Structures are given as C-alpha cells and as structure tokens.
Amino acid sequence: MELQANPQLLWFIGIYAVLMVGIGIYMSKKVSNSKDFILAGKSLGPLVLMGTLLATWTGSGSISGGETSVAYSFGIIPSLMLMVPTLVGILVLYVIAPKIRAFGKYTISGILEAKYGTSARNLASVIVILAYVGIVSYQMTGLGFILNLTTGMSVELGTVIAAVLIVFLAMIGGLRSVSQTDAISGFLMVGGLLITVPIIISVAGGWDSIVANVPESHMTATGGLTTIQLLGYLLPSLFLLLSDQNMYQRLAASKGDKSSKRAALSWLLVMLLISPAISIIAFASRSIFPDIDPGMALMATTLALPLGVGGILLAAAAAFIITTGNSYLLSAATNMTYDIYGKYINKDASDKKQLVMTKVFIVVLGAFSYLLISYFPTVLEVQMYSYTVYGAGITPAILAVFFWKRVTAIGGISSMVAGVITTLLWELVLNNPFELNSSVISVPVAIIVLIVVSLATQKKN
C-alpha cells in the first residue's frame, strides 16, 4: 500500500491542539510564582501525576524511534525487549520516590551539588541542557512527520509548526498547565493505542499474514542484531529514566509520598499495556507499508485504518510527542534559570525575574532544539545520542547519591566527565565503530570510574 495524505485526519489533531492550548491558558492563570511554574505548587495527586509521568516519558522516542523503529526494522521481539528497561527504571524510581521528594530540589543538578559540590552542579547542568535539547528536537520532527502524513506538507514545514506549538505550551503555564495537559493526553494515548491493535491486525489480514509479509529475521529473538548491538538499544533508555530530571521534578511535585508511589506503580502497569501495543502496531505496519521510513511506521497505519480510529490514533501520537517536548523543554529551561542565570549572572534575581527568565530560556532552547535536528539523519539516531549523553553522564553519579554511601565527590565528578567524553568521542569522533551504540562503552566506563576513583579517594572525602 502506498502512503497518501489524508487531510481529514488533520481535524483530529486540530481539535486536540485547541483543547491543549485552552487548558494551558486556563491553568496559566493559577501560576503566581516559580514554585507553581516548575513544581505545580507540589499539588499533584496520584492520577494527574501518573498521567504526566506516562505522557512525558512516552513521546517521539516511542512513536517515531524506540519501539516503533525497532519493531519495523528488526522485529517484534527486540521491540518488546525495549519495554524491560522502562519497567526496571520505574521500579527503581518507586523505591527512591520519597527520597527525591525529601530533597525538594528544582533540578538534578541541585541534588548532585548537595553530594558532590558546585562543580558537579555546573557539569550536570551542561549535560542536562545538551541532552534535553536533543530530546526536544526529535519531538519536533515527530510532529512534523504527523503533519506531513495528514496534510502532505513537507516534514520541514511541519517541524517548524511543531516547534512553535511545543514552545508555546511549555511557556504558557509551566508544570501547572503541562501536568494537566499531560494527564489528559496520557488517557488519550492509552485509549487510542488499545483500540487500534485489534483493528490494525485485522486490516493487515491477521497475524499469520503479517508474519508472512515481514523478513524472516523479524521473528527471531534479536532481529538480526548481535547481543551487543541489542544492548546498545536497551541501555540508553534505562539509564536516562533512572535519573531523568523530568521524572524527579514530577515526583517532587506530588502531594506526598503516597501519591508519588501510587503514581509510579500505576505508570508501570499502564506501560505494560501501551509498550506492546506500540510494538504490534509498528510491526503490522512493516507488513502493510514495507518501504517507508521506520520512524513513520506507527503513524502510517492511520491511513489504513477507518477514519475515526485513524484520527484517534494520530491524535494520540501527537499527544505523546507534544507533551514530551514541552516537558523536556521546561526542564532544560529550569536548569538555565536556577543553575546558570541565578548562580552566576543575577544572584539577587527576584522570584518574578526568575519566572520571566525561565520563559525566555524556553524560547531560546526551543530554537536550539529546532536547529539540532538537521545534524542527525534519523529520529532514532538523535534519540540514542541524547539518551546516552545523559545516561552515562548523570545516572551513575545520581544513583550513587541514593544507594552508595562510600561514593566521593571526586568519584562522582570523574564519572560524569568520563561518561560524557566517552559518548562524544564514540559518536562524533570515531563515528560508532563496529556499529555499536556508544552506551555499550560509555555507561560501563562511567560506572567503573565512579567505583575506582571513589575507592581510591576515600580518605580525601
């Protein structure tokens, strides 16, 4: 089947976008200070918190990269394996949620500073901003794919429109509005995906027909990937989630420890439903559309579905992407305001001034995110790069704060430096030798450096 734009699908995205903008504007009226803007006044109950955790984590990385690209390119089993790192990460966050809330920090950098000092805070801020700008950039491209599919406009123009929408929604009301739009989007996602699965299997001629129309390697355990290559897809998402500033900020914004734990557990249960759904839909797409960009696998199925179902799925895909984009943009802007502007440029800035600067940085970082996507040819490539820079640079050091009392300041900082440098060398200088994702190299290096340097500097701590 050939791809052919269906402008009627645009109505579903348009209605969703108008609803989100309306909610954002309404909730923005409840923002009176920085705490409201960044932590939603610590008022999130378990239902809204679960929705915003779900919607923030499951974005274009799943819809255009992650499970979707892997299911289309390598098969159903490798794609289903991508669910495992997420489940493990959520369980770890469930355990440390009360500690995260007790810290009461706006950023990951603040937590690292408490353990390792100012140098760790500065380095972490740079890592967070670098990685999150990358993550926001592929959300923009993901929405550009959707607009291309529905209207026939170029992906480039669709990406520009996506950038404007993501920046606006992040800027209008901060986490106070983002959490509410996330929650609504989260439920739309679950409903859209679960409705689509049985219908797309039927449209493709049944499961046997799908299996018959995909390469034989797509039904093997690794889809033709070596074990090391497969680990290269699994490790980045795990190590991003374990220290994702967005998740930490949302858990810190909960009403209390019970709310955060209930939300994390509910999030895990919902992921058990939607991750396999995404994999199955993208796998069926390989049978129906054998020669398309892997990043468009899920969205292309909307053209083969009945209009109503296709429209709901497309709106759900847009929801995934927009909510993730504005959340990561808000989070990176928070680092700019509190870790750079407030620390070094204007130490005496009032709360109102900090609020204004956060909005300014949302626009600036949004522009950088848009520019970055031109340097990476695929969504999956920029996804893996961004995840690994963050996962190797931040995660070992942040987990040591919660789980290893013997870690030293020098050990933590050395681990962060080693993780980032190894990732950048592997990706940008060596150009991924042996076709291995840098996470296979940089994450172990960061962990080893953390342990060795900490043990060697115990007396200096």
TrEMBL record:
It is a multi-pass membrane protein. The chain crosses the membrane at residues 6-27, 39-58, 70-96, 123-147, 153-175, 187-207, 219-242, 263-284, 296-322, 360-378, 384-403, 410-430, 436-456. It holds the Pfam family SSF. Keywords: Membrane, Transmembrane, Transmembrane helix, Transport. It is found in: Membrane. Its main location: membrane. InterPro entries: Na/Glc_symporter_sf, Na/solute_symporter, Sodium:Solute_Symporter. One of its GO terms (molecular function) is transmembrane transporter activity. The keyword Transmembrane applies. PROSITE patterns: NA_SOLUT_SYMP_3. Belongs to the sodium:solute symporter (SSF) (TC 2.A.21) family. This is Sodium:solute symporter family protein. It comes from Ornithinibacillus caprae. The lineage of its organism: Bacteria, Bacillati, Bacillota, Bacilli, Bacillales.
